[in-house]
């Protein structure tokens, strides 16, 4: 059983890589993040606050992996319907959620390139060499964040599978999540009631930990932060799998699995 | 008269395009929420850096850029006839293709203006900002001019992107990000090296935004009028190039058959 799961997952990863290579639009977040990074770092440079340039790098990282998940990954089910492959996948023994997790995770991992791009931008354009002082916390937080984004994107992919609303929802979801999650600026600058809500958004925990790894002071609350990211991501994933099953059942009942 | 009639049908198609994405509920609670959340994230940098001037700078820049980015949706919209398979039908009809394409895409300019106006109001309220030294009609005039010139630039790029329809959303993403980066939205134009400044002033948004900033900073000269005129000239230039290019590309497509349904 374990081997079957792994081979099905690997096949899904391979298929997603092939599809992304044939569709440059999938890489939109990776293509636009260098310009966004320049804008963010330029604001700190213009204010003479080189010490805060790391905020821009963390924002670039979270925005790129977030966009790869929310903008590209969330479209997977709708695309499978559109290209008439959903029916074929569903008649196989492999659970669809497994295929979906493998494909969305592949896309979000590609988003990590956003950090490398913005780091290079900071170095080449602004001559800032930003150091990660706690590489192990940075790595574990990033891995947990990738899991959390994948889990959350199963929810959005399930909701987006009703084709007509896909683009509309894609355009709405990310902005408010980044603001409330304090991706660019810590939530302490937001009203109190938003700060309470923020604790239910995994970006809040991820952004705080990742920013702290760039400081020399050391990172506080690592365990609780990483557990919260994983907990919120897994909760999202569980809700997503449940929703996905409901959506697929409904599409089956209506005979509309491949009809948009 | 015939061009006007085609244009009005184009407008009707454009309105239907818009309705595929938004109704009044999703536009208000979704689109505007998203636009204001993104702009809000940038404006909060002013709070992080404890600078009231930066908050004002980023608020004005992002509120106006939000509309410009929305108007740039005309870039992908220019290719939708190729995606829908109606492009060859437009080509075999007598007359220029431009009234049909401009008609279909103009709705995104209107969306840009409305987006900017609402974003300006919401962000001003959220950050407790009241505009000084500028009247409401001057705010409105700036927004209309900037969104129109961005739309004109989008017509030009849209004509090019008809050749590579798969890149339509990539082009939109790059243009929207470039506007935020180099057109005086995030940092003053003077921050950039001279060659970048030259490019920035040839792009939409830069002149209009600079003019508006001069007005708000109580500049006693007529910088606002001059720079707003520059914005109109820049927009008109891109529009003219776009219209010419549209027909050149259409004629090339007629000759080599590269206008197929994709």
Question: How would you characterize the overall build of this protein?
Answer:
- Chain A is mainly α and 260 residues long.
- The longest helix of chain A is centred in the C-terminal third of the chain and has 32 residues.
- The radius of gyration of chain A is 19 Å and the shape is globular.
- Chain A has 12 helices and no strands.
- Chain A is 73% helix and 0% strand.
- Chain B contains 12 helices and no strands.
- In chain B, 78% of the residues lie in helices and 0% in strands.
- The mean pLDDT of chain B is 93.
- Chain B is mainly α.
- Chain B has one domain.
- At the A-B interface, helix 2 and helix 9 of A face helix 2 and helix 9 of B.
The low-pLDDT segments of chain A are none
Question: Which percent range describes the beta-strand content of chain B?
Answer: under 5%
Going by helix content, strand content and strand pairing, the class of chain B is: mainly alpha
Largest sheet geometry of chain B = none
How do the SSEs of chain B run, as a string of H and E?
Answer: HHHHHHHHHHHH
Oligomer: heterodimer
- By DSSP, the count of extended strands of chain A is 0
Number of helices of chain A: 12
Q: C-alpha Rg of chain B, in Å?
A: 19 Å
Strand content of chain A: under 5%
């Amino acid at each position: 059983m374990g081997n079957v799961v792994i081979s099905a997952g690997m096949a899904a990863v391979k298929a997603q890589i092939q599809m992304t290579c044939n569709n440059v639009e999938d890489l939109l977040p990776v293509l636009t993040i260098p310009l966004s990074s320049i804008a963010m770092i330029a604001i700190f440079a213009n204010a003479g606050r080189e010490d805060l340039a790391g905020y821009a790098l963390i924002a670039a990282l979270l925005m790129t992996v977030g966009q790869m998940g929310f903008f590209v990954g969330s479209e997977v089910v709708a695309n499978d319907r559109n290209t008439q492959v959903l029916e074929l996948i569903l008649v196989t023994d492999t659970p669809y959620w497994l295929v979906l997790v493998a494909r969305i995770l592949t896309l979000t991992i590609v988003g990590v390139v956003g950090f490398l791009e913005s780091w290079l931008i900071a170095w080449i354009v602004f001559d800032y060499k930003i150091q990660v002082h706690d590489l192990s916390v940075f790595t574990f937080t990033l891995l947990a964040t990738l899991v959390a984004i994948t889990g959350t994107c199963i929810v959005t992919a399930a909701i987006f599978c009703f084709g007509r609303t896909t683009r509309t929802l894609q355009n709405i979801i990310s902005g408010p999540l980044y603001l409330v999650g304090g991706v660019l600026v810590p939530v302490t600058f937001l009203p109190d009631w938003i700060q309470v809500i923020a604790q239910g958004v995994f970006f809040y925990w991820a952004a705080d930990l990742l920013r702290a790894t760039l400081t020399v002071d050391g990172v506080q609350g690592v365990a609780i932060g990483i557990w919260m990211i994983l907990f919120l991501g897994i909760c999202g994933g569980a809700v997503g799998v449940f929703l996905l099953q409901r959506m697929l059942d409904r599409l089956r009942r209506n005979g509309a699995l491949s009809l948009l | 008269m015939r061009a006007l009639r085609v244009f009005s049908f184009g407008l009707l198609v454009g309105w239907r395009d818009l309705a595929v994405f938004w109704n009044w509920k999703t536009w208000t609670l979704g689109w505007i929420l998203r636009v204001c959340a993104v702009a809000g994230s940038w404006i909060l940098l002013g709070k992080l850096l404890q600078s009231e001037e930066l908050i004002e700078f980023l608020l004005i820049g992002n509120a106006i850029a939000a509309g410009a980015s929305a108007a740039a949706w005309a870039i992908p919209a220019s290719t939708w006839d190729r995606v829908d398979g109606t492009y060859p039908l437009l080509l075999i009809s007598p007359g220029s293709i431009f009234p049909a394409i401009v008609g279909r895409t103009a709705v995104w300019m209107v969306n840009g203006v409305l987006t900017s106006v609402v974003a300006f109001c919401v962000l001003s309220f959220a950050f407790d900002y009241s505009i000084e030294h500028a009247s409401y009609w001057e705010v409105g005039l700036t927004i209309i001019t900037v969104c129109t010139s961005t739309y004109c630039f989008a017509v030009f790029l849209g004509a090019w992107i008809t050749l590579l329809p798969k890149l339509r959303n990539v082009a939109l993403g790059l243009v929207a990000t470039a506007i935020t980066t180099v057109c005086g939205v995030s940092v003053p134009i003077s921050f950039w090296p001279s060659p970048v400044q030259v490019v920035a002033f040839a792009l939409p948004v830069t002149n209009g935004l600079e003019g508006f900033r001069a007005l708000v900073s109580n500049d006693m000269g007529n910088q606002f009028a001059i720079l707003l005129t520059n914005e109109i000239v820049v927009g008109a230039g891109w529009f003219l190039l776009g219209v010419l290019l549209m027909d050149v590309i259409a004629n090339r497509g007629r000759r080599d058959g590269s206008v197929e349904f994709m």
